[in-house]
Amino acid sequence: MPAPEMSDVTTSGIRVGATAFYLPSESSPVDQKYVFGYRIVILNEGELPAQLVSRHWIIIDGDGKRREVQGPGVVGQTPRLEPGQAFKYTSFAVLPTDWGTMEGQYQMRHDDGNAFDVAIGRFWLTMDKEA
To answer: Which fold has domain 7-126?
Structure first.
């Protein structure tokens, strides 16, 4: 069964789509360095503005080794999305294997201070799709 093209999950009115691609020019298989880019689209389909506060990624390589990455915002930003507004960004992950998966969550906050977690569905990092 082939890996799905992208993940698409909605939590509490926030929709997150993710897709990945292989970056052969940045990779060095002989050194066990495989670089995968990924594109994220975050869309506020809810009724209230929401700001992305932090991220938590779970990255699993082809050997089953799990790595977690946490931190404030994404790509140096903490975007605030009005209802109907989207934020798109591209980033990358480096794996020691030629495939793996990513999934996780964003912590978001409404203007009234209420925080909530938004799921990022699992997506595949494979060499099948290049940039």
So the answer is: Immunoglobulin-like (2.60.40)
